[in-house]
Amino acid sequence: MKSWKTSNPVVLIILFALGWTFMYADRNILSPVMGVIGEDWGLNNTELGLMSTVFFITYAAMQIPAGYLADRFGRVKVLVAGYILFGIGTILSGFAPGFIVFLVIRAITGLGEGTYYGPQYGISANAIPQKYRGVSSALINSGMALGISLGFIASSYFTFELGMSWQFTFYLFGVLTIFVAIAIAVFVKDDRSKEVAPSEASAPVEKGNIRDLFTRNHILTYILIFCSLYGFFGMMTWLPFYLQESRGLEGSETGIIASLVPWASIPGAILFGYLSDRAKNKKPLILILVFFGAICQFVIPYVENYSLMIVGLIIYGFVGKLALDPILISFVADNTKSHMYSKAYSFFNFAGMLSSIFAPYITGYLSDVTGNIEVGFYLSGVLLLIGGVLFLFVKGDAGVKSKVTAPQIAATK
């Protein structure tokens, strides 16, 4: 029987970008209709934030186990199984009769999505040459931007323009998600022949140790991704609600305005990924993006002028989390042995996604306590500046100095 599986980088980039598209679309179809759900179920802002928080708790909790499961059972198998669960959970979210059941289903959905990150970047890091890592990661990450925009616009359009129930988008995206899982299962081949895996024989192959994932460079990168994602998920969760409640925009408009952030991130991610691939030391580029991203976190809620706010959103998209991610992903790969990629990316994403547990809830809580949702955005800017200051202490030109010779690599194949 003919196999359609391939490790061709172009195919992997397309399918993995599509995978991220529906991952982020699912997360963001909730944001534009939070006000509607709040009215239907009588929820305050803290409870609305909790709907995203429970999802991210289980998503983050799966990051490290997913890396180990992928190494044990195969990265494609674990990724696809989780992705199908994620699709089913998205469909069931639309059938939830009330707040508590919705929370439980969103938690299950988070478990499914949690198997994607580590295995996906482990597969692509092996298949794609090192000199193209930054650009390839940016292209894959463009699916995140497309997904955010798709989720915002689709949810706003179906609910506010067509007058359909807020549940409809969950049904639609859940079905499409399952089709994506099938495509990945059919076409993606995990070629691990390029890895330098620890040998069970007596060959002098360099073995990986879990401590290798907690060097100074790794730890400070984990802290920075936490700070970066805190602001990103706080903003993406609450931006449509903020535009409606604080800026007075119609619900049908918020999806388009909020989508400016992900759309601006696509050229930014590709440009900075390209520059990253050509930079021996990625540290200065990372720090520049962090600084301007933090400034935007302050400017967006502070300025009263509508046009200046729009400019702030576009600049944040261009230099913010979605532009920074590919460079940090490449930086992690540069500092990690190839056979430990899945575990390294699992720890990396776990650190980042911890922030997503707190950001939606804390932003909602601060809004209830202070009556001002802007406070949560200011906190995001402060955290990003802290992460940038700590990142000053990484060794920017450090990398993995493998002791494994070519003959030893051949001996392990």
Please describe what this structure looks like.
With 413 residues, the protein is mostly helical. It contains 18 helices and no strands. Helix 7 packs across helix 16 (341-370), helix 8 packs antiparallel against helix 11 and helix 13 (283-302) packs antiparallel against helix 15 (321-334). The longest helix is centred in the middle third of the chain and has 30 residues, at 216-245.
- The structure class reads mainly alpha
Total E-strand runs: 0
What's the Cα radius of gyration?
21 Å
Beta-strand fraction estimate: under 5%
* Average pLDDT, all residues: 84
Which CATH architecture would you pick? Up-down Bundle
| Overall outline | globular
What is the CATH class? Mainly Alpha
Binned, the helix content reads over 70%
Supply the number of structural domains.
1
Q: Going by CATH, what is the homologous superfamily? A: MFS general substrate transporter like domains
The major β-sheet equals: none
CATH topology: Growth Hormone, Chain: A
Distance between the termini: 26 Å
- Total of DSSP H or I helical runs spanning 4+ residues: 18
Query: Which regions have little confidence, pLDDT < 50, spanning 5+ residues?
Result: 196-205, 401-413
